[in-house]
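Holo prediction. Input below; ligand is magnesium ion.
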Amino acid sequence: MATTTGLSLNQKLKIFETCSLIRHVESEISRRYEKGKMRCPVHLSIGQEGVPAALSLILNPKDYAVSTHRAHAHFISKGGSIKKMIAEIYGKSTGCSGGKGGSMHLVDKSKGFMGSSSIVGNSIPIGVGLGLAIKLKKSKNLSVIYLGDAAVETGVFFESINFSVLKNLPVVFICENNLYSVYTSLKSRQPRNRKIYKMVKAHGLRSYFFDGSNPFSYFKKLEKILEKSRRKSEPCFIEFSTYRYLEHCGPFNDDNLDYRPKKELLKWKKKDPYLNLKKKLEKNNQQKNLIKKIEKKVYKIIDESFLFAEKSNFPLKRNLASNVYKKK
Ligand SMILES: Cc1ncc(C[n+]2csc(CCOP(=O)(O)OP(=O)(O)O)c2C)c(N)n1
Ligand SMILES: [Mg+2]
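Structure of the complex:
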């Protein structure tokens, strides 16, 4: 039965499941990080789960997605193997990049997750190229490009949106605006009265803005926006406001550094995507039980994935130089 949001209970539960999976996988990474077994930097998305949770229900494995340094949530949303992701973070040979890439180099081609990169802006033209491939093959798929608010400041972003409009490519730009680039606020980086999505609109893309924290509220609109890009094979840009709770890079919070107002963090914590979806769904005992079941399933996946990573072997020394660029 559909509700005021237009979503069935089943759809809501599925969105919640992805949200819960992202939240708990990342919380577990944060909890275990100090043990020193994960030796690569990690950029966690705790607080930012709403958007990838919604998209998990709209995209299919034949759609492509590329991402940034903060890629765990996007990889999980696309159905990427959690075992291989955790093993990658542990630097093990069973990881999705053979243990040589780490947290920022996630890939699962079987699910259309084509890669993530540590270089800000770097994956944007790759996603546009994937959109061109879709267009040339005349298939009805999408290429989704996740980017942060700072990637909008790179030159390649403008080249990419220009090309996607020029060639009318089925590319979906998902800008997660969490107001910060490391420690620097958006206010110090971009003109105060210029909204990102409006600036992009002027380049000729259909362009939208939503508060990312409540996926139930915008899911149906988002579905329609992407459906139009799929049907007409054309680009669109969606800016979502969102907020990361922890430090830019690492498992801890860094509120002691005072680079963000405490009020701001509290405001966003009130809108916590995971806690609020859970609260909305735990309406009665029957639904409470459904949520319990989902979370039990999520914890099982997480336990098995960490165990898999811990038990896996490191890459062999003799394979050190394989699959990496080297001078001839
Ligand atoms: C080309 C480039 N410049 C600078 C950096 C250093 N750097 C890493 S992440 C980051 C901030 C990116 O901010 P944003 O795109 O908003 O993503 P967020 O971290 O907020 O998710 C910066 C400047 C980099 N990795 N690559
Ligand atoms: Mg940012």
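The pocket of magnesium ion (ligand 2) is lined by residues 148-150, 178, 180-181 (CB under 6 Å). That is the main takeaway for now.
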